[in-house]
Amino acid sequence: MQGFSEAHIARFENVGLRYGLGPEVLQDVTFSLATGSFHFLVGESGAGKSSLLKLLYLALKPSRGIISLFGRDIATLPRHELPALRRQIGVVFQEFRLLEHLSTFDNVALPLRVAGVKEVDINRHVAELLEWVGLKDHMKARPPTLSGGQQQRVSIARAVIARPKILLADEPTGNVDDRMALRLMHLFEELNRLGTTIVIATHNMSLVDGLGYPIMRLDDGHFSLIEGSGNRSPTRERRELRESARTAAAARRRRPTLDTDDADSEPPGIENFL
What we know:
The chain is α/β, with parallel strands linked by helices. Helices cover about 35% and strands about 20% of the residues.
């Protein structure tokens, strides 16, 4: 593989993956993820989407080929360096993987506590984010008492709270209604605006087509890249108009209210708590 460029945060070169002695579930996958890019990952059930995400968040190693993350070849990466690398990756799991003995608040706060953030900052940031995703009345609830959609929102909040360099989401809108799905996509867009590279695996093609980002497609383990439709979501259009009309100082002074439940609203001052 050629030398690492900061313009690319991840590279796959002729990657293959098989489980045990079975057939390859991913075959000759080659692509680069530009730093700060936003991609959807699509394909039929069993096409290899979850396997590709597992390679990206270092839960698996490829059977063959080369994977580089943050300029490091993961095949030669010392085992003791893996935890630090993983902390730069936020993951929204399809099965949530929340800690059932912890409250909603403490599940979301966990990445910040691991990172050594001050408790006063944790209290403020976590409370704001949970309010924005509609869980302000469930901060003390434990996962078994929450619905599937509520648990999904907790999982998303936990994944984004530490502002990872890469965010990988496996069907993050699968258990929420269309209104909340759009609201959560706006959160991902705002995180992307701040520099996070986003990959979202989904079956929701109306969402994919409506937002217009490039598409990574898997068909029976074979990879292809499709350019985005060029559509621009209302959130992106409003943001560009706003940013052209005001200075950064004015942006910092303005904090949208947290009381709205408008699906088109943007995360309130997300740069201040992510």
